[in-house]
Structures are given as structure tokens and as C-alpha cells.
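Lab notebook, design round three. We kept the backbone fixed and only want residue identities now. Task for the bench partner: fill in a sequence for the structure below.
Input C-alpha cells:
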């Protein structure tokens, strides 16, 4: 009888363990497939060491936006996103950040800066109209969301299509003479605008505006800086580590040959980013559904993996969480940024996109389309920013509409 009871208890325990297994489905793009396969092996190993029962797998997505949709529908559980995507995923799909990357001495944030050549002395932040701009990619954090959002909400760059979800692209196209905005074709269809926003890019195989550095010389952080340094553009919007990274590789002079443009229209030397930047860029974060019951277990696994396979694991022949070279020579930052040094769990009170990203970052992001900011007039009074569509003032639209109604009113 005792043996029968023991057998029944064993079956019950096994069934309970199976039913309590957490779901760990990581959504990936095609480039991340090989790394994710290795990643899942170590996820299972780490979960076992932590006495966590787990079913783990990789789920393919066509893009990070597709991954966000899959997670919101319960077809996947996790993906790492940059700040801009965390904002969009939180606002439109109610996903929440649960684990943040950390970048050594820079912690869980870095700075968005506007870089110019020191010799280009006439440039200030409020004198960029009609100049040429270089960006890391469309709606990426340091290269677009923070600088363009900041300039829009502070009236430095007039908004031309308030309420239009393409306002930021229309505004940039009217403000700058030409630009390199990799990936802009994903957001707009008009050939004239694409031509202007991709004019400074240098692509291959008829793909001028690709976001891939292997296809477009001026894509990403290093590419944006090179676009300015090689005199294609006047200003590069990048993160604060970019200048020293690129000049350290050779061929672009010294860091002292460049300067930052500050919010107060002064300029400061490279390295003085804490006193001269356009905003904080939040670290990349792992997101999931708000009602995911396994968040604490997932945090435990990722933090333990960070300890074992993060920056402490220096053997490149073994699995490294923050190294993508083994899987692709052309595509870095697979699943996590290669510059990350640690994964840290986000406290429960910070697990919302607004609290994680910060008020200024959210305002910058909202300013891209909402135009809910005020602009100082030349008389010193505060007036709503004039809105227009495709460069035509909205007030003109109202006048035309009223003139059409006059005959009807007279009747």
C-alpha cells in the first residue's frame, strides 16, 4: 500500500511540476537564429540550476515590431528592444520592461549628442535649419527620437503636420537641406521625401538607405558620425561614446577635432557629455506582457545568465551573452547589445514604459507626432506652434475652407 501511495504522490508531483513550468519563448529576427539556439541551451541549464522548470524556445519574427505583436498575442514571451521600441510597445501593446541592459561605467543610460566639426564654427543648435543632417536610423533613440523630439517640442524645428503620424519625417525634410535617415522607407512612401531624407546615404546594390552598415556606409552610430566627418553632412546625431570609438579606429583625426552642440547654443569638447547633451537614452530592455505570471523567474534566469555568460566570461570560444561575432561578422548586437556588460532586473515599481524611460524621453517621443508643445514668438510671448501639412500652413487650409462656405452662409 505504501508503494502505491508513493507512486501516486510521484505522479502528482511530476504533473504539478509540468503544469508549473514557465514559458520562455524568445522572439528573434532571422539574423539572430544561430545565437538564440545556443542561448536557449544555456537558458535551460541555468533554469535547472535555479530549480525552475522551464519550456524554452526561439520564435521567429519578421521584425521587432512583429515580435511585439506576437508577444501581445501570446505567441511569444520575450524580446530585447531599444528605448524607442519600448515606448511603442508599451503605449500600443501594453508590454512592460522587466530586465535592463547595463553598460559598464555608464550604467543603464547613455546620452544623445549632436556632433559637429570644431572647424565648422558657425553652427549652433538653433542654427541648423538649411544644414545637412546624419542620423543613425529612422526613429532610433540617439539618432532620431531624442534629438528630433527635443527640437520639435522646444520650437527649434517647426512642426509641419501636427497629428500626422509622419510629422517628424515631414518636419525634418523641410528643416534640413538634405539628410541620411537609414530605414526611412519603412515609414513613408512619397518618393520626393525619401529622396531628400536618403540623399546623403551611401548604399550599395541600389539600396541607398539601408539600416545595415554592410549595405549603407552611413548607417548606425559609426556610420552617422562618418557621414558628418566625411563632409556629407554638417551634424551627426549619435550617442556620446561614438566619437572616441570611431577616431580610435583611425582615419578620422582626433576627438579634439569635434565638438558637441549644447541646448543653450554653446559648444563643448568631446567627453563633456554630462554638461552638453540633448537627452538621456535609456538602456535596451527585455519586455513581456504585463500579465505574464513568470516575470520573477525570468528575471532570475537572465540575471544568473548575465553572471555566468556576461562580461565575466572572457573565453570567446564559449558562449558569450554579449558577443555576436561568432554568429555574424556583419550584424552585431544580436539579441543584446555587444557593448552591454550586465543584465539587471527592473524593480516592480519601475515596470512601465513611462517610469522606465523617464518623463523627458516620453515627451520627446510624443512630440514626434503630437506637436503638443508651445513655441516662443519673437515678442517673447508663448503661442501654439503653427501646424502645416507638407509645408502648407494649416491656417491657409482654414481660409480656403471658409471661403468655400461663404455662399452657403449667405443663402
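Proposed sequence:
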Amino acid at each position: 500500500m505504501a508503494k502505491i501511495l508513493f507512486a501516486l504522490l510521484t505522479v502528482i508531483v511530476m504533473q504539478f511540476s509540468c503544469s508549473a513550468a514557465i514559458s520562455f519563448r524568445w522572439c528573434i529576427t532571422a539574423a539572430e537564429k544561430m545565437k538564440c539556439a545556443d542561448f536557449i541551451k544555456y537558458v535551460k541549464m541555468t533554469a535547472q540550476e535555479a530549480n525552475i522548470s522551464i519550456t524554452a524556445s526561439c520564435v521567429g519574427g519578421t521584425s521587432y515590431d512583429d515580435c511585439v505583436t506576437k508577444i501581445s498575442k501570446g505567441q511569444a514571451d520575450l524580446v530585447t528592444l531599444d528605448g524607442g521600441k519600448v515606448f511603442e510597445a508599451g503605449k500600443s501593446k501594453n508590454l512592460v520592461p522587466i530586465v535592463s541592459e547595463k553598460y559598464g561605467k555608464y550604467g543603464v543610460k547613455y546620452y544623445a549628442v549632436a556632433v559637429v566639426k570644431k572647424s565648422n564654427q558657425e553652427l549652433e543648435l538653433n542654427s541648423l535649419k538649411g544644414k545637412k543632417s546624419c542620423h543613425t536610423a529612422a526613429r532610433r533613440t540617439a539618432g532620431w527620437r531624442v534629438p528630433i523630439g527635443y527640437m520639435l517640442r522646444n520650437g527649434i524645428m517647426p512642426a509641419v503636420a501636427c497629428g500626422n503620424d509622419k510629422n517628424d519625417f515631414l518636419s525634418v525634410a523641410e528643416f534640413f537641406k538634405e539628410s541620411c535617415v537609414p530605414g526611412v522607407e519603412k515609414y513613408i512612401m512619397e518618393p520626393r521625401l525619401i529622396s531628400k531624407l536618403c540623399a546623403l546615404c551611401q548604399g550599395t546594390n541600389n539600396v541607398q538607405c539601408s539600416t545595415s552598415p554592410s549595405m549603407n556606409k552611413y548607417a548606425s552610430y559609426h556610420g552617422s558620425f562618418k557621414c558628418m566627418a566625411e563632409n556629407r553632412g554638417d551634424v551627426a546625431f549619435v550617442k556620446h561614446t561614438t566619437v572616441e570609438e570611431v577616431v580610435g579606429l583611425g582615419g578620422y583625426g582626433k576627438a579634439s577635432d569635434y565638438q558637441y552642440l549644447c541646448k543653450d547654443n554653446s559648444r563643448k569638447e568631446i567627453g563633456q557629455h554630462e554638461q552638453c547633451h540633448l537627452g538621456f537614452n535609456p538602456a535596451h530592455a527585455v519586455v513581456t506582457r504585463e500579465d505574464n505570471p513568470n516575470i520573477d523567474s525570468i528575471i532570475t534566469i537572465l540575471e544568473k545568465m548575465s553572471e555566468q555568460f556576461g562580461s565575466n566570461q572572457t573565453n570567446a570560444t564559449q558562449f558569450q551573452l554579449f558577443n555576436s561575432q561568432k554568429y555574424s561578422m556583419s550584424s552585431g548586437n544580436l539579441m543584446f547589445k555587444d557593448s552591454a556588460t550586465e543584465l539587471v532586473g527592473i524593480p516592480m515599481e519601475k515596470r512601465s514604459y513611462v517610469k522606465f524611460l523617464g518623463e523627458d524621453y516620453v515627451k520627446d517621443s510624443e512630440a514626434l507626432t503630437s506637436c503638443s508643445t508651445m513655441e516662443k514668438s519673437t515678442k517673447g510671448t508663448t503661442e501654439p506652434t503653427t501646424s502645416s501639412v507638407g509645408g502648407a500652413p494649416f491656417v491657409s487650409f482654414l481660409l480656403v475652407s471658409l471661403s468655400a462656405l461663404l455662399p452657403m452662409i449667405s443663402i
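Keep this in mind before ordering anything: Residues 25 and 36 are 10 Å apart (CA to CA).
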